[in-house]
Amino acid sequence: MTTLTMERAGTRTDVPYLAIEGVHQVFRDTPVLENVDLEIRRGEFVSLIGHSGCGKSTLLNLIAGLLTPTAGRVSLDGELVRGPGADRGMVFQGHSLLPWLSVLDNVRVPMDAVFRDTRVQRTQAKAERIERILRAVGLWEHRDKKPGELSGGMRQRCAVARAFAVRPRVLLLDEPFGAVDALTKSALHDELMSLWSSDSETETVIMVTHDIDEAIYLSDRIVVMSNGPRAKVGAIVEVDIPRPRDKRTIARLPAYVEAREQLLALLARAPGEAPHT
Q1: pLDDT digits (tens, 9 = 90+) for 185-211
Q2: C-alpha dist (Å) from residue 3 to 8, 168, 204, 245, 259
Q3: pTM of the entire predicted model
């Protein structure tokens, strides 16, 4: 476990924070996930990676409560996940912003829905939080613009800001940077890390990605899914690189090279093959 993860976890016990136990998921008689078991600790950044169709997004949606498992259970901090909740925030591959609202209102409206206390001090606290988060992602100067006036990278920044604003305990990311260019993606990585490390409410992050380098740079552990149908957890790769991480030097670290080679070996298989462990 990295230094940052240990600091964020505080006095955690060995009881898993998020537990996925014996989960099966079937869609129209097609088994997508079969007997998935996974434990995620409080304060971790975990990535899910694998070939297309291996059920990564399905698993993320089960954690979000957007789907109910056909069999098995998902629990967060000892409580069964029965549906969506404010304790889990999600950023989709598409930004899903409301086009008729400004950047400021796209962040404020979900906060108002979650935090209904309208006392002056709470209203002021919400305004201060919105400003801090929008400044952190470089959007404060663009707060009055609507999504149609923003670049793709700026729209994703707004989506990330909106997710953090509602203080989720678990942040779920479904390929949030897949549609942006490499330079924008790199900046978004660092903004995400900065927000996560400075936000005491959001403890744990789970991200779906196809990008090996992105997974290594951001994650404490990387879960490699086996190929579908009937996908399950094929292997878990530990990323033993201290935080904060520097993209200018990380690729030369032995731990980075080792993690990358492990992931390439695990993913270099034809569809239908079992993972090489």
Answers
A1: 888 899 899 888 887 778 899 999 999
A2: 9, 22, 14, 11, 18
A3: 0.87
